[in-house]
Write a structure and sequence with these properties.
heterodimer; A: alpha/beta; Amidase signature (AS) enzymes; 11-stranded mixed β-sheet; globular; B: alpha+beta; Arc Repressor Mutant, subunit A; 3 domains; 9-stranded mixed β-sheet; 3-stranded antiparallel β-sheet; 19% strand; elongated
C-alpha cells in the first residue's frame, strides 16, 4: 500500500536536505512554538530516522519505551514495557513524533483537562479542542503531524475531529485490537484513526484493523480500506436523524449539516431514537467498568505513590492526591452503582437499556444504510466555560449512538459556524462503506 | 452441633497461566499478569478449563454449558489488578463421600505476599486455581479428614493436581447463622485441629462471634484476622474483556466415566483394594486397562505398582511417551524368560524417555553357553563349591553369566547353561 503525497507534509519537511536547512530550522522553531502554545503533546520523540508519514499517538495507548501517563499524575514516571498492537502495526511505516495530550484517563469531552496543561483549539486558542483525544486533533489541525491515533468510547475521536476541523473515525467495536489501550469502558472502547482527510483515515485504518489471536478483535479480516475509497457506492440510502436537528442542538449547526447532507442525497424522512436515555445508561456502565479497571492504581507497582502507615492508607492517599476530580467522580459513581445494594437498580438496568438501544438501532438500519447528523450539538466552548459535568456529558448526545451500538461512525468537517469548525457525522453498518460515503461527501464539498 | 463447609483450592497441572502465556514452571511475570495499564487478557487457558470440567465431572456435578468470568474487587498488595477474575460455576450439585458439592469453578491466583518482609512475589499471580465449595454437610473433624483424603485421591487419579498442596478455607457454623471462617489451612492435620479447636471454643461459650481467622500451623491454633467478611463488598461484574465461553465443545475431550468403569472392573476382577488405590492415584488407570488386555489383570496391576510407578518417578517421565504394545511385549517376554530383567528395565527406561527400545536382542542359547563356559573357567572356586553341593553358589554363577553377557542372557538360559556344564543333581539336598 502506498501513501498519497498529501499525507507527507510534515514528513517532507523533516526530510529536507541541507539546502533547505533554513526552512527546516524555521519549521522546527515554528513547531516548537506552536507545540508550546497549543500543547498538543505530553511527550515528544526525537526520531532518528524518518520512515513514512509522521504520527502522534494518544497518551492512553502504550508505546514501549515512551512514557505513558494517560495525562494523569498517578502514572507519572510510568514507561510501558510493551507496544499496543495498533502502534506495533504502524511503527514500521510511520515516524512517531510524540504522545498526544488528552483528558486525564480519557475522562472528558473537552480535551482540555490533562493534569499536565491545557490543550487548545487550533482554530481559536481560547477554546477547547474537543475530547478526549484533543491533542491528536490539535496536532493534526496545526499541521504538526500527518496522522494520529485517538481513542473513542463515546465520541472521543469524533468530538475533537469535529471541534478541530479534522477527520476522525470510530471503527466498529472489535475491529482494532485494544491491547495496550488503557481502559475507560471496555465494552465500548475503540482505537480510532484521525487525519486531515478521509484518505489518511482509511490509510491508517488499513494498518491497524483486524488480526487473529486477540480476544479484543472480533472482526479479524485485514484489508486495504483505500483501494475502493474513490469509488462511490452504487446504491445507498441515507437518512437524517431527527434528534440531530432539534433542541438542544445549536440551530446554526443543524441548518449547516442539513444543507451539507444534501450533497450525499440524504433523505429527510427522519428517524427517531431515544438518545437521552442512552447517554444516562452509558454514564452508569462506563463508570462501573472504569472504576473496576482503575482499581490497579494503588501506588504499589507503577507510577506515583504516597506513603502511608498501612497499605490502606497508602492506597487512599495515593489515589486522593494523584487522580483528577473527574476521574475520582467516575470511580465513586462506578463503585456505588456496582455495590450489591444498587447493582440491580443501576448497573444491570443500564446494561439492559444499552442492549435494547442496540437492538432498536439494528432494526432501524434494516431499512436504511446510513444515518447522518451533526457530530457535536454545539460549537467548541471556551476553556473553563463549562463547570457542570452534566452539561459536558450532554455534549455526547449524538456521538453516543454509534458507541452504544458498536457501529462505525465518522466525523468529516463540513463548514464553520462563527468561524469555528463543524463536523458532519455518518453512522453506518461497516467501516469500508462509511469511509466511502465520507469520501464521496468530501469530494462534493470540495467542488465548490 | 457444628456444621462445617469447606472451600478447597488447588493449582491444576497446566504449563502456562490462566490469561497469559507465562510458564507456571518457573518465575515469570508479564504485563498481563502484572496488570500493567492497557494490558488485556488472552484467551483463557484451555487446559485449565478442561481440568476444571474434569474435576466437576469427577465430583459428579452438573456441568454448565457456558461460563463467564467475573471481576471480584478488593485492594490487597498481592492482587495486581485490584480485582480477581473468577468464573461462574463450571459444575454444581455434585457430591463426594456423602458431602454435597455446591460448586466447582476456576479463578486466577494472587501473588505471594510476605507480610514480614513487606514484599510481594507476583510470579504466582495469574496461575489457574480450581476452587471446590462444599455445602455445610460436614459434622466433625473426622468427616472433614475423610472428605479431604478422598478428594486428594480423586485429584491424583485424574492427574489434575500439580503441586500437591490444597489450600482450604473452613467455614464453621453453630446453626444460629453465625459463622467463623478459618482461612488458608494447608494440611489435613491443620484442618482437623482447626475444627477441633473451634469446637472446643464453642463448647466453652455457647455462642459464636462472626469472625475470620488465620490458622497458625506451628501453634495449631486459630487467630482472629478480621471481622467476618459479610461486610466486604466485592462488586462483582462480568469482565468486559472476556466474552462468555461455550464449554459444550470441550465436553467430549473430558472423560471421567471410563476411569470410574476401570475401577469397577478392577474390583470385579478381584484386584486387592490397596493395589487399586495405588493404580488409581498414580493416574495410570487407563494404562492399566489397556495393558490388561495383553497380560493377566493381576500381573498387570502388580507390575504397575511394583515397578512402573517407581520407574516413572525415577525417570521423571510420562507414560505417554511409551508405546503400550511394546511395553506389553517386553513384559510378556520377561515373564516367559525370553529376556532378562536387566534387559527389560533398560528397554523400559529408554521407552519412558521417548527413545526407541533397543533392538539388539538376546543371545542365542549356544552363545550363552559360550559365555557360561568362560565364567566357569574363571570362577574355579565357585564351581568347586557348587560341585561340593553349595546350592547358593548357583545364583552367583547365574548372575555372573548375565553380567558378562551384558544383560543379553536371560536368567533361565544362564541357569540351563551352567547346569549343563556342571552336572549337579539339584533334587538332592545339597547344603
Amino acid at each position: 500500500m502506498s501513501c498519497s503525497k498529501k499525507l507527507m507534509k510534515t514528513r517532507d519537511i523533516l526530510l529536507m536536505d541541507k539546502e533547505d536547512l533554513e526552512d527546516r530550522i524555521h519549521y522546527q522553531l515554528e513547531l516548537a512554538k506552536r507545540a508550546e502554545e497549543y500543547h498538543p503533546f505530553v511527550w515528544t520523540s526525537e526520531p532518528d530516522k524518518v520512515l513514512g508519514p509522521s504520527i502522534g499517538i494518544k497518551d492512553t495507548i502504550a508505546v514501549k519505551g515512551a512514557p505513558m501517563t494517560c495525562c494523569s499524575r498517578i502514572l507519572q514516571g510510568h514507561v510501558p514495557v510493551y507496544d499496543a498492537t495498533a502502534y506495533a502495526r504502524v511503527k514500521e511505516h510511520t515516524t512517531l513524533l510524540g504522545k498526544t495530550s488528552c483528558d486525564s484517563f480519557a475522562c472528558g469531552s473537552s480535551g482540555a483537562t490533562s493534569d499536565f496543561g491545557v490543550t487548545r483549539n487550533a482554530h481559536d486558542p481560547l477554546r477547547v479542542p474537543g475530547g478526549s483525544s484533543g491533542g491528536s486533533a490539535t496536532a493534526l489541525a496545526l499541521g504538526l503531524v500527518d496522522l494520529a491515533l485517538g481513542t473513542d468510547t463515546f465520541g472521543s475521536v469524533r468530538a475533537p475531529a469535529s471541534f478541530s476541523g479534522v477527520v476522525g473515525l470510530r471503527p466498529s467495536y472489535g475491529l482494532v485490537s485494544r491491547k495496550g489501550l488503557v481502559d475507560l469502558c471496555m465494552s465500548m472502547d475503540t482505537i480510532g484513526p484521525m487525519a486531515r482527510d478521509v484518505y489518511g483515515v482509511a490509510y491508517l485504518l488499513s494498518m491497524i484493523a483486524g488480526g487473529k489471536g486477540d480476544l479484543t478483535v472480533s472482526i479479524t479480516q485485514q484489508k486495504d480500506y483505500t483501494s475502493q475509497l474513490e469509488k462511490p457506492l452504487a446504491h445507498k440510502h441515507v437518512l437524517l436523524l431527527k434528534e440531530g436537528f432539534e433542541d438542544p442542538v445549536d440551530p446554526r449547526i443543524a441548518r449547516l449539516v442539513e444543507k451539507e447532507a444534501d450533497k450525499i442525497n440524504a433523505e429527510t424522512s427522519e428517524i427517531s431514537l431515544s438518545l437521552e436515555q442512552v447517554v444516562k445508561a452509558y454514564y452508569v456502565v462506563m463508570s462501573a467498568e472504569f472504576a473496576s479497571s482503575m482499581q490497579r492504581y494503588d501506588g504499589i507497582r507503577y507510577g506515583k505513590s504516597k506513603d502511608g502507615k498501612t497499605f490502606e492508607d497508602q492506597v487512599v492517599s495515593t489515589r486522593t492526591q494523584f487522580l483528577s476530580e473527574e476521574v475520582k467522580r467516575r470511580i465513586l459513581v462506578g463503585t456505588a452503582v456496582t455495590m450489591a445494594e444498587y447493582k440491580e437498580k443501576y448497573y444491570s438496568k443500564a446494561k439492559k437499556a444499552i442492549e435494547r438501544f442496540k437492538q432498536s438501532l439494528k432494526t432501524t438500519l434494516q431499512s436504511t444504510d446510513f444515518i447522518v447528523c451533526p457530530t457535536m450539538p454545539c460549537v467548541p466552548w471556551k476553556i473553563g466555560e463549562i463547570q457542570d459535568p452534566l452539561k459536558e456529558y450532554a455534549s455526547d448526545l449524538l456521538t453516543g449512538i454509534a458507541s452504544a451500538a458498536g457501529l462505525p461512525a465518522i466525523s468529516v468537517p463540513c463548514g464553520t459556524v462563527q468561524g469555528l469548525p463543524i463536523g458532519l457525522q455518518i453512522i453506518g453498518k461497516d467501516d469500508e462503506s462509511v469511509l466511502r460515503v465520507a469520501r464521496e461527501y468530501e469530494k462534493e464539498r470540495d467542488k465548490e | 452441633m457444628i456444621k462445617v463447609g469447606l472451600e478447597v483450592h488447588f493449582h491444576p497441572a497446566t504449563s502456562s497461566k490462566l490469561f497469559c502465556r507465562c510458564p507456571t514452571s518457573e518465575e515469570s511475570v508479564c504485563e498481563i499478569c502484572a496488570a500493567h495499564p492497557g494490558a488485556k487478557p488472552l484467551e483463557p487457558n484451555k487446559t485449565a478449563l478442561l481440568k476444571t470440567i474434569l474435576v466437576a465431572k469427577a465430583l459428579r456435578c452438573k456441568v454448565s454449558p457456558q461460563i463467564t468470568f467475573l471481576r471480584k474487587h478488593y485492594f490487597y498488595p498481592d492482587l495486581p489488578a485490584g480485582f480477581q477474575r473468577t468464573s461462574t460455576p463450571v459444575g454444581t450439585q455434585g457430591s463426594l463421600e456423602g458431602i454435597r458439592i455446591r460448586e466447582v469453578h476456576v479463578e486466577e491466583d494472587a501473588g505471594r505476599y510476605d507480610l514480614k518482609k513487606g514484599t510481594v512475589d507476583y510470579s504466582r499471580a495469574g496461575h489457574p486455581l480450581i476452587e471446590i465449595v462444599t455445602e455445610p454437610d460436614i459434622c466433625s473433624a473426622r468427616e472433614a479428614e475423610k472428605f479431604i483424603r478422598s478428594l486428594r485421591d480423586l485429584l491424583e487419579c485424574f492427574g489434575v493436581w500439580s503441586d500437591k498442596t490444597l489450600r482450604t478455607d473452613i467455614n464453621i457454623s453453630a446453626g444460629d447463622g453465625k459463622k467463623i471462617e478459618v482461612k488458608e489451612v494447608s494440611t489435613i492435620k491443620g484442618i482437623i485441629r482447626a475444627i477441633e479447636y473451634e469446637k472446643e471454643i464453642l463448647q466453652k461459650r455457647s455462642y459464636l462471634t462472626e469472625v475470620t481467622k488465620h490458622y497458625d500451623e506451628k501453634k495449631g491454633i486459630t487467630v482472629p484476622l478480621r471481622e467476618k467478611e459479610s461486610a466486604v463488598e466485592y462488586r462483582y461484574i462480568p469482565d468486559p474483556d472476556i466474552p462468555s465461553i461455550d464449554l459444550v465443545p470441550l465436553f467430549p475431550l473430558v472423560d471421567v466415566d471410563s476411569v470410574f468403569r476401570i475401577k469397577e472392573r478392577m474390583e470385579r476382577e478381584g484386584i486387592p483394594s490397596k493395589l487399586i488405590r495405588t493404580i488409581m492415584v498414580s493416574g495410570l488407570a487407563v494404562f492399566y486397562s489397556r495393558l490388561s488386555e495383553y497380560t493377566p489383570p493381576l500381573k498387570a496391576a502388580q507390575w504397575i505398582s511394583s515397578s512402573l510407578i517407581g520407574e516413572l518417578k525415577r525417570e521423571n517421565a510420562s507414560i505417554e511417551h511409551a508405546e503400550l504394545h511394546e511395553i506389553a511385549r517386553l513384559l510378556i517376554q520377561q515373564e516367559k524368560g525370553q529376556i532378562s530383567k536387566v534387559q527389560f528395565t533398560r528397554a523400559l527406561r529408554r521407552m519412558l524417555k521417548g527413545e526407541k527400545p533397543s533392538t539388539t536382542g538376546l543371545l542365542s542359547y549356544s552363545e550363552v553357553k559360550e559365555v557360561a563356559l568362560k565364567v566357569v573357567r574363571s570362577e574355579q572356586k565357585a564351581v568347586d563349591k557348587l560341585m561340593k553341593g553349595k546350592k547358593s553358589v548357583l545364583h552367583y554363577l547365574i548372575g555372573q553369566v548375565i553380567k558378562t553377557s551384558g544383560g543379553k542372557a536371560t536368567h533361565k538360559q544362564a541357569e540351563q547353561a551352567i547346569l549343563e556344564l556342571i552336572p549337579v543333581d539339584l533334587s538332592k539336598k545339597l547344603d
